[in-house]
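Colleagues,

For the teaching module next term, I've prepared a clean inverse folding example: a structure given as tokens, and then the sequence designed for it. I'd like students to try predicting residues themselves before seeing the answer, so please don't circulate the second half yet.
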């Protein structure tokens, strides 16, 4: 099966899992992705229209420019990649302009940082500053082909872009919609379970809230599909869902463990309620 690649490196990106994931996505008119990330599912599916959402507004800003001014974005990003500018100078510029979050320059800098920083990690400090160090790559690829393909896909389908918490996207779901959720996973450790509701951390209460909103959306006639880690806590939260196990190759092995990790895909359709 041919899998199209995103122009972004993204921790938790579903690129390598697409062949296992697609059979679980039913047909429908519109796909809603509340956690769109690098858009691997978006570019490898064929719905009539899309809602792409993520709480990372820098990411959604890039998608806006890809749709509205591909040539401008490619030129600005390419000249950054081709220059001998220091990584930390770009990062510093990016962090100085937090008050102007929706510019073309910022979108180009985001693509530059994604390709040059350590492992393509996207992390911000409390002040909202991007704080991932330089990745020290010998050669950095400019993903022009992938940017063009992504832009063509955005232009070819009516696509709503939302920079917000997952609630906003799920609220838009109606009868016949398909919602695919790929949230940050919860590990099932005590830390994830017993910490209280913290909107910035994806833990047990937030995952339960996600489940509740999905159940409401399915009552309205949508179908919900969710990815997560395979543990007893996740299975408990999504006990109403049909659960499928898949083997997931790890891209970033935090503990040096490169064994395949078991993930689950949960599916909830209106007839199951
Ligand atoms: C695992 S990634 C999604 C990867 C995506 N499926 C792909 O293949 O590229 C999870 C995404 O959820 C986003 N996210 C984290 N917390 C969120 C929240 N509360 N609401 C919406 N998006 C959130 C992150 O910014 C990240 O892009």
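(Answer key — instructors only)
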């Amino acid at each position: 099966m041919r899998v199209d690649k995103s122009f972004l490196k993204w921790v938790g990106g579903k690129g390598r899992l697409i062949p296992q994931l697609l059979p679980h996505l039913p047909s429908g008119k519109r796909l809603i992705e509340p956690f769109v990330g690098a858009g691997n599912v978006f570019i490898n599916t064929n719905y009539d229209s899309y809602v792409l959402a993520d709480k990372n507004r820098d990411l959604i800003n890039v998608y806006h420019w890809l749709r509205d001014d591909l040539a401008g974005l490619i030129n600005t990003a390419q000249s950054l990649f081709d220059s001998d500018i220091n990584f930390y100078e770009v990062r510093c510029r990016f962090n100085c302009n937090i008050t102007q979050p929706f510019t073309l320059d910022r979108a180009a800098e985001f693509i530059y940082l994604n390709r040059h920083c350590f492992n393509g990690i996207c992390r911000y400090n409390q002040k909202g500053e991007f704080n991932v160090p330089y990745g020290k790559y010998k050669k950095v690829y400019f993903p022009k082909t992938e940017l063009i393909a992504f832009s063509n896909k955005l232009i070819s389908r009516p696509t709503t872009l939302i920079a917000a918490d997952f609630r906003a996207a799920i609220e838009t779901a109606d009868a016949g919609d398909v919602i695919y959720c790929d949230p940050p996973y919860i590990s099932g450790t005590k830390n994830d379970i017993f910490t209280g509701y913290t909107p910035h951390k994806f833990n047990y209460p937030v995952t339960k809230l996600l489940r509740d909103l999905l159940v409401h959306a399915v009552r309205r006639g949508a179908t919900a599909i969710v990815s997560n880690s395979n543990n007893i806590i996740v299975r408990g939260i999504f006990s109403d869902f049909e659960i499928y196990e898949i083997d997931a190759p790890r891209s970033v092995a935090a503990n040096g463990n490169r064994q395949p990790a078991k993930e689950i895909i949960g599916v909830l359709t209106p007839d199951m309620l």
